[in-house]
Amino acid sequence: MGGCIMLPSRDIKGLLDIMAALRTPGSGCPWDLEQNFATIAPYTIEEAYEVADAIARNDLPDLCDELGDLLLQVVFHARMAEEQGAFSFADVVEAITRKMIRRHPHVFADKNGQLSPSDVKGAWDRIKAEEKAERAAKRPEGETTAKSLLSGIKAGQPALTRAMELQRKASSVGFDWNDPRAVLHKIREEADEIETALDRNDADELAGETGDLLFALVNLARHVGADPDQALRSTNTKFERRFGYIERTLAAQGRSLESASLEEMDSLWNEAKNEERPSSPPRAR
């Protein structure tokens, strides 16, 4: 059976129709049909990072494209929810419009006088607190959430950022090391636990221990005043630069990466590393 004909559109309905077609059993896309919220969530996060990257590069044509990819993620989740009878894309739009109107009474309600940015921020925080209380009141009776020191930390943050915030909050009540060297000792301890887990070859245990090591590394970054996400971004850039040196050097020799041994690539890596080191300043006579 042939598929329905779709044309590019400037109307959101066109995108909604495309997603509905992709998710239609029998005539839709096999890959799209087998997805669920959990499998699509990583793509949603990835697309948000792509938007941030386009902004950082000041590439507005690419930003337009990446915003479309991010919008698709919202449409995809909404479609899956609609199939389950939970909510639709229209419900998503209604919820956010209601929220924005409520959080901006100085814009959308009759109110005399001008508000300063600090006044606006205060009103925003107050209204968010009211909304949170209303959501809590709607929970089934008996369903309570224990108030925790860490409960205010957003779950949707990137893992490195959230680890930093969790540690900072715990530190505020004294649950912390006082010396970066103590954190370094913890890192070595976690590395030893990974080595032990390797002997058992348990995938779940290895994943857990690796997470512990990453958490300890974030702790070290916090203690030495480094932002872990930015530090990792810098290392990513450095890796790309040095690996590019390997590729260019081999290409100049008429060779491919596949033809080089690991020892040769390691040697070229070290050359790239040495070239990056600043030369020693001349000694005073």
Automatic annotation (TrEMBL):
Q: Tell me, what is one Gene Ontology molecular-function annotation carried by this entry?
A: ATP diphosphatase activity
The record, for Gene3D superfamilies, names: MazG-like (1.10.287.1080)
The family database entries (InterPro entries) matched by this protein are listed as: MazG-like_dom (IPR004518), NTP-PPase_MazG-like_C (IPR048011), NTP-PPase_MazG-like_N (IPR048015), NTP_PyrPHydrolase_MazG (IPR011551)
| Catalytic activity as recorded in UniProt | ATP + H2O = AMP + diphosphate + H(+)
Q: What is its EC number?
A: 3.6.1.8
Q: Which GO terms describe its biological process?
A: dATP catabolic process; dGTP catabolic process; dTTP catabolic process; dUTP catabolic process; response to stress; TTP catabolic process; UTP catabolic process
Pfam families, alphabetically?
A: MazG
Q: Domain (NTP pyrophosphohydrolase MazG-like): give its ranges.
A: 35-108, 181-242
Q: Which family does the entry's similarity section mention?
A: Belongs to the nucleoside triphosphate pyrophosphohydrolase family.
Identify this protein by name.
Nucleoside triphosphate pyrophosphohydrolase
**What species does this protein belong to?**
Bradyrhizobium canariense
Per the UniProt record, the lineage of the source organism begins with:
Bacteria, Pseudomonadati, Pseudomonadota, Alphaproteobacteria, Hyphomicrobiales
